[in-house]
């Protein structure tokens, strides 16, 4: 059994990750919050025995094997480095860090310490995206030419906070959502993005100059061009991912979701057919793979290196939107 410590008494841990850890055979030993009262209340509500207020108390706990980092983005680096030094396996929320240098340093620290490091990119665990990847690999749409992601949603009030008013914490829609698009496209297309161009928007939700929507295009090493639309401001939109090839198209609807849901339709010369899907909890799939990786029998569904790639793409989109120029994507791995 893997024994876990939570770095951050977060909403995502409460809503998704705690349940996934327990469902896949893990045990949660402790949670860290710098606010002692909040940490204690969180631990009591989630059935966690211990709550601590310092990073050192959590990572140096001999009863903990792995940590889940879900604090705000600017804190990830130091927390991951401390966990690696303490010999703890690391599952870190995206984006890994605020800079590529920091993200690469986190991955190297984990490698040097001999611990598993993963990025919590949940969408690549969806049955929909797995089916699309398999269909492309099987040649069912011929040569992929283009893709389209629509991942513009409405950010509910209980999640707004720092995402809309703290640029120093990596707020804004690009580092929150566009990084997920980049990772999902890398997974589905089995190719890396090489260039980005984008326009951002301030539609009234983002404060302190933060963007709350963005549109742009990624160009991939295999020639595919992928359009994306991300937002916090669209209350009534649906999400989707399409990939179009020389011999067919894959149409995914309501697939950019934390929920195990959505459909994938293949359109080709024979008409339309819906691909069979085995929907399973995305986070449980991720945690099962992580536990297997700790046992030395596989690797996480999204590695630390995958997190560096998605951050590189996100930072390129940020720069492209700021300058109006095409920006190269260079993870430096």
Describe the 3D structure.
Residues 131-250 form the GFO/IDH/MocA-like oxidoreductase domain. GO terms for molecular function: nucleotide binding; oxidoreductase activity. This is Gfo/Idh/MocA family oxidoreductase. The protein has 333 residues and is of the alpha/beta class. The protein has two domains: 3-122, 3-Layer(aba) Sandwich (Rossmann fold), CATH 3.40.50; 124-284 and 311-328, Dihydrodipicolinate Reductase, domain 2. It is built from ten helices and 15 strands. It has helices spanning 11-23, 36-46, 55-59, 76-85, 100-113, 127-137, 161-165, 173-189, 282-294, 304-323, and strands at 3-7, 27-32, 50-52, 66-69, 89-92, 117-119, 144-152, 193-201, 213-220, 225-231, 240-245, 248-253, 263-268, 271-274, 327-328. Strands 14-13-12-11-7-10-9-8-15 form a nine-stranded mixed beta sheet. Helix 1 (11-23) links the parallel strand 1 (3-7) and strand 2 (27-32). It is globular. The mean pLDDT is 94.
């Amino acid at each position: 059994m893997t024994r876990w410590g939570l770095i951050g008494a977060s909403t995502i841990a409460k809503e998704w990750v705690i349940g996934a850890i327990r469902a896949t055979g893990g045990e949660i030993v402790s949670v860290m919050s710098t606010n002692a009262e909040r940490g204690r209340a969180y631990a009591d509500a989630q059935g966690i025995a211990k709550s601590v207020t310092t990073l050192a108390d959590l990572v140096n706990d001999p009863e903990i094997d792995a940590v889940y980092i879900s604090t705000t983005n600017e804190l990830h680096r130091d927390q991951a480095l401390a966990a690696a030094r303490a010999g703890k396996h690391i599952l870190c929320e995206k984006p890994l860090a605020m800079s590529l240098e920091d993200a690469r340093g986190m991955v190297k620290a984990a490698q040097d310490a001999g611990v598993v490091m993963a990025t919590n990119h949940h969408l690549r665990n969806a049955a929909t995206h797995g089916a699309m990847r398999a269909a492309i690999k099987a040649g069912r749409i011929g040569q992929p030419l283009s893709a389209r992601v629509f991942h513009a949603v409405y950010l509910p009030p209980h999640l707004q906070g720092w995402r809309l008013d703290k640029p120093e914490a990596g707020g804004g829609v690009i580092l929150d959502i566009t990084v997920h698009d980049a990772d999902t496209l890398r997974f589905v297309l089995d190719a890396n993005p090489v260039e980005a161009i984008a326009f951002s928007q301030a539609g009234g939700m983002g404060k302190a100059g933060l963007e709350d929507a963005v549109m742009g295009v990624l160009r991939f090493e295999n020639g595919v061009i992928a359009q994306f639309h991300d937002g916090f401001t669209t209350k009534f939109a649906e999400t989707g991912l399409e990939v179009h090839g020389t011999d067919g198209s894959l149409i995914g609807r309501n697939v950019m979701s934390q929920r195990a849901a959505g459909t994938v339709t293949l359109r080709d010369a024979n008409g339309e057919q819906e691909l069979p899907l085995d929907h399973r909890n995305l986070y449980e799939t991720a945690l099962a793979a992580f536990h297997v990786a700790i046992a030395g029998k596989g690797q996480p569904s999204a590695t630390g290196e995958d997190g560096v790639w998605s951050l590189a793409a996100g930072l390129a989109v940020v720069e492209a939107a700021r300058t109006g120029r095409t920006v190269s994507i260079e993870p430096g791995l």
